[in-house]
Fold these 2 entries.
Entry 1:
Amino acid sequence: MTLKKTLMTGALSAVFATSALAGELVINSNQSDPAPKAAWAEIIAQFEAENPDITVKVNEYDHEGYKSAIRNWLVTSPPDIVYWFAGNRMKYFVDRGLFDDVSDVWEDNGLSDTFASTKASMSVDGKQYGVPYTFYQWGMYYNKDIFDEYGLSEPETWEEFIEVCETLKANGVTPITIGTKYLWTAAGWFDYLNLRTNGLDYHIDLMDGKIPYTDEGVRKTFANWQQLVDGGYFLENHASYSWQEAQAPLFNGEAAMYLMGNFLTPNLPEDINFDFFQFPQIDPSIGMFEDAPTDTVHIPARAKNKEDARRFLAFIAEKAQQEKVNEVLLQLPTNSDAQPADDKFLNQGSAMLAAADGTAQFYDRDTDPAMASEGMKGFQEFMVNPDRLDRILTNLERVRQRVFR
Amino acid sequence: MQKNYTQTWSQRAVPWLFMAPALALFLVYVILPIIQSISMSFYQWDGIGDKVFIGFQNYVDLYYDPQFWTSLWNNILWLLFFMLAVPFGLGIALFLNQQVLGIRAVKSLFFFPFVISQVIVGIVFAWFYDPGYGLLQDILALFGAGPLPVLADEALVTYGIIAAGLWPQVAYTMILFLTGLNNLSPEQIEAARMDGAKGWTMLWHVILPQLRPATFIAIVVTIIGALRSFDLVASMTSGGPYGSSSVLAYFMYEQAIFNYRMGYGAAIATVLFLIMLVYIAFFLWRMLQQER
């Protein structure tokens, strides 16, 4: 075969490839870890089997790279489906007209009933802009063997919690493990302390930039936090570790508790008895609000194949698909008809979230990205140098005024 | 007369014609982006929405941003301590500049850190410093010192990263000096020896003056390396803890890519550009002088 001929066939097949695009659905995915990747491959194969006129093409990205790359596609030539996050992260793109209004998908499939718990986080001005496929609880994962050894039980109030920390520390166990190298783990603590101290409405107003960081309420939250820092309850040198590295002390029995999302549980070793408790109550007059980050799929406003994309959205909202993917992720399905996998932590999590007075997404999903990155730096600095609180809050207030001006 | 005029005209035009491709590329890929960045620094822009003209507001914000001053100070630390690469490189080059069996293998081993990627260097050093299992802690334990979390300590972190950066940079300057040492004039050394020069006198008055071109290049690449220090900061600490190891290049990247503040990032880039301009001007001035 001559070179010319090769080029010709190449060009011809390229022509055919473009003509085949009519029924092609392009999905850009951040589900690149081995287990979710396999689960999604299965779901997509099922979708193709049920819709023989559609061929699906999946492009996979790593989590961090995805977050910056998506901004480029959405304004240039987007795929037909993107994975993303609910709440303020979604609203950011909706405000800029980059996500398609999919209220029709919600209406046609009766999602308002089955997705009642996540509908608010998917809505902007009463219209829905995507379909969620999973959410998960945050809370305290702890080593039950250590608790039993020192006769401790799950604390329900702040005083009990402090007492548990004291007992553990007196016995040479690090009460709380944490790795703040990548900052967001400290934001988990801020979220819970602020939700328990000031409640959800205050928290959301703070996230929306309506309350100054130098406010008395924020100071109260930090005063509670300071009690833990001054007590020396957190893992030493936590700024050196990632969240994964901070698991080690928990798994070898040097530390007892870890405030984390449920994605921790697949890593828990078999030979230790781990359990879960809800973040303790601080102020009895404040409801029990939880962080429940929700992951979603959306149709970009400039997608080429919106019709098939809508079929895909409806498909993954189905009970069967929600169960399948969440069984692998070990998280909670957003469709209320779907059953979560029978797992000790998921059962507790779904009961806790069902009883919650309200939910937030997570600090870096609820507030503006520029505010989030400065805020989380401030949290980390506070955990290392609590005496700098005034300076940190003044700086965060300066950032807030700039970001939300 | 007419013919003469055409000739001089074409004589003048031909060099420009030959330079045109290079000039065009330089214009499109260097000059225009610089102008674009500088003009972007007067806008507030998140990368996808509308650009809003805000005048010098980004520069005013920079002035009041403690992170900017931390990053600038770290850049100065980088400039100062990265210079150690020059004497270290010279020392190793002098040490390796001998005819012994297998010296080539030894030289290539010393050159090795420069060949591997900066990101790998960063990860290796991050492990070395790790307070849990790092080699550094074992060494400190020999002297009875407790674990020292270099990368989590705001006072030590920048020095820790600079030390990691010196490892490949010393290898680079070493190679520059080694090639310089190969070109020494044997007659001059012989003559100096006849006059009784040896040791430090020989090094200072005979060898070093001949190494001046190599030294100049070594200083220039080290300055540029210090100002560009980005990969190590990104791979070892991401600017942490709480921004205390950030440098201007990383600060710019963080603001533009993670915080979606393109205009602010452009303003940081402009400041960095002005700092670099001082060195570039010095470099060009020297080059022109030498050519004369």
Note: The domain at 57-291 of chain B is CATH 1.10.3720.10 (MetI-like fold).
Entry 2:
Amino acid sequence: MTFYLVRRVAIGFFLLLLMSAIFFTLTRVTPGAPVSVGENPRIHQEQVNRRLHSMGLTDPNGKPYTVPESYVRYVVALVHGNLGDSYQYNEPVTTLLMQRLPNSILLLGAALLVALAIGIPLGIYASTHQYSKADMTTSIVSYIGVSIPSFVLGIYLLLIFAVFLKQTPLHWGFPLFGMHTGGVDDPVDLLVHMVLPVTALAILQIAIFSRFMRASMLEVLHQDYIRTARAKGLAVERVNYKHALRNAILPIITLVAIAIPQIVNGAIITEGIFSWPGTGQLAFQAVVDRDYPVILGVVMLVAAGTVFFNLIADVLYAVADPRIRY
Amino acid sequence: MAQVPPLPFGPAAGGLPGVPDQLSVETTVDQERAIVQPGVKSDELAGAPELGFWRLAVIRFFHHRVATGALLILGVIVLAAVVVPVITGNLYSIQDYRHPYKAPFQNLQHILGTDDLGRDELARLLRGARVSLMVGILAVVGYLVIGGGLGALAGYYGGWLDNALMRFTDIIISMPFLLVVIAVTAATGGVRLSTVIIVIAATGWFEIGRLMRAQFLVLREQEFVQAARALGASNTRIILRHILPNALAPIIVSATLGVSGIILLEAALGFLGYSIPPPEPSWGNMLQNFEEYLLSDHTYLVIFPATALVITALAINLVGDGIRDALDPRQR
């Protein structure tokens, strides 16, 4: 187990390094210079050089770094916890990320919890009542859920609550989006702001979780030991919720680990739509502004998070299921 | 009744004396043809008709009412996207500054109204459908070529290729897909549709790759493959003629569902301004100004593209699931 963990962590670091190399090269070979000379004739070449140097793109003599050189510099800085400066905000990327990260964790965590709290019971119910009306309804709704991307869902939600319900008390006006007021000091206000973005993010995951849970449950319910338990005369509830559920719920751990990058993906646009000041919105804006250090920073953060959560999922899996050995 | 030449081998050869030979006594002309020429339809044979796997699958698919309906809707969308823009020409780009924001369902000239620049919304939607479908189909072809090819080779030969494929998949899976596509698109300079397609194909093929690998891993150990090898078939022949046809069913399902995934991804990219550039409409970039439209109460400009997207994705997913049920009846 210890050896396995060490190996996994080592592989994780290697993956991150490789990924950063790929992304770094991509952002460097992108056409367009960060400081262009031709645009303003009143800017001196000397000023441009100074700016380029301050951005860490040239050495003190004004010679531009080659891609491998600057990548090594980037990695060295990365080890020191420095992700470079944003072109747009003139601030260290780490500062920007740290400002936004708590907001994102709040939103994504809430979305994940809501999805689990609704999706899993829904899937269990659908599987124990296979082909019932409730099962059919769940299937249909989860179908639609999978086919609506979170950004379209976000737009639909805005359409309904901000435009169609304008004359009703249910109206969710535009100033209510994002954390314009209150923040953590005003939990009720915060919750009100979270309802729509959390819904937009959670629906897809609810659909995925409930479908998966249903399939997983059905598979277990058809196994021999379940038949044995039933034949012994155990109560249906006991067989379903004790014998079957324990085995069926295990794969959900992996699914949650897979869901995290998906939610982050959805969050990039959803946070943008709802002006939620998280890392997703930061990435959204960085994409629009072509602010590559920030994009790179977000990618690295997400990748590190994914590697980490996959590791946690595998360990949890081994803890939860004694049959698994590494 | 025609005489059948005695078969060179098999139980019926010659026939036992006194026992009437099945073939020579009871066969009709059609039956003979079916036996002598196996390629000819065997429907007319008495008893249970021998249908092939694919024909049975087609029959099963059309017994599935929802899937058939979805296929019909999809057919209408594809037909409209292919045919209508040819007739209307460049209507989608003709601006009419005197009639911006014309409400939908008011006159026949602009059935779905006009957008902020007075361009016909219906023409733009159909033009956008073209973009979506083209990206979806071409990128999936890319998935199949790259993922299918590499997956098959990795599954069949194993070794370093297999290892490399699995590690690469690990990397891709842990990256935020949207940002990857954006970074690559930006790096290849300028946003063109061809770039978007290539980038999506190059970054999204791994799912089909893994599926294909898993199929090949299982199938290469089976008796019929061993038999083929024992008969001296080359690796190429075994891969293409023996394993591939048997590995196809889940790949087809995954590819179908992949099309809807790509269409949604392309829309998200267009929404962020990283797909086909503005004069050309796509469902994604038509939603770019959604805030403006919502605030000015021109909600139809948001509803139409968003709903077109959802209906198309839903229809493709339903068709895909119908195909899954048809190909693998055990999974129901």
Note: Residues 144 and 208 of chain B are 7 Å apart (CA to CA).
